[in-house]
Amino acid sequence: MAVRVFLVDDHALFRAGVRAELDSITDEIEVVGEAGSVGEAVVGIAHHRPDVVLLDVHMPDGGGAEVLRQVRTSLPEVVFLALSVSDAAEDVIAVIRAGARGYVTKTISSQELVKAVVRVAEGDAVFSPRLAGFVLDAFADRPGAAPISDPELDLLTPRERDVLRLLARGYAYKEIASELFISVKTVETHVSSVLRKTQLSNRYELSRWASDRRLV
């Protein structure tokens, strides 16, 4: 029997590409549905009851962790594999903490993606090589380990974290806007929100705060 897969990503072109690629190279996987938002994903997953959900981490209305929070309790048999452009430690940790069985980046080859989907469907945990270390750190009881939970960091939305990460890397507002495909005004709004939530006063303090949490 083919592994029944549901795609969740806010970019329709990317979903179409993944579906076409999987359909063309394997009969081990059947894509049964797709969604571009948290709300659509929750409804679609409940309707289709797939074996595996390929889950984007960042979406405008909450992201992959929010999908997991809304679905995991009612559909514990569904397995989630994060498929994201992000390789940031906090993103990996957040989605695994929420219940995903693995995390691979969008640089993965089509053949490797097929293997990853089949493996998580069979009960394995799958991670892109450099991401496995983040998970080990997060759940290791040793000095320097990334925290499993950071209440202050959890206050920030995924988009605020994106903006903060680029800000801490030295990007100007205009560069951040270009990188994230948002307006400079929206960048300013996100930075103001982050400053308010962290109770910090300037970008230099934010950069140090982000570095301490391994966002950079």
Describe the fold and architecture.
This protein is α/β, with parallel strands linked by helices and 216 residues long. The protein is built from eleven helices and six strands. It has a six-stranded parallel beta sheet with strand order 2-1-3-4-5-6, with helices on both faces. Strand 1, helix 1 and strand 2 form a beta-alpha-beta unit. The chain is elongated. The termini are far apart.
List the total number of helices. Answer: 11
Biggest sheet architecture: 6 strands, parallel
* Helix proportion: 40-55%
Segments where pLDDT lies below 50 for 5+ residues? 141-149
- Kindly report the spatial arrangement of strands forming the biggest sheet: 2-1-3-4-5-6
Query: How many strand segments?
Result: 6
**Secondary-structure content class:** alpha/beta
Question: What descriptive keywords fit this protein?
Answer:
single chain, 216 residues, alpha/beta, six-stranded parallel β-sheet, 11 helices
Short description:
By secondary structure, the chain is of the alpha/beta class. The protein has 11 helices and 6 strands.
Topology (elements, then pairings):
Layout: E1 3-8, H1 12-25, E2 29-35, H2 38-48, E3 52-55, H3 64-71, E4 79-84, H4 89-98, E5 102-105, H5 110-121, E6 126-127, H6 129-138, H7 151-154, H8 158-168, H9 173-180, H10 184-198, H11 203-212
Parallel strand pairs: 1-2, 1-3, 3-4, 4-5, 5-6
Helix pairs in contact: 2-3, 3-4, 4-6, 8-10, 8-11, 9-10
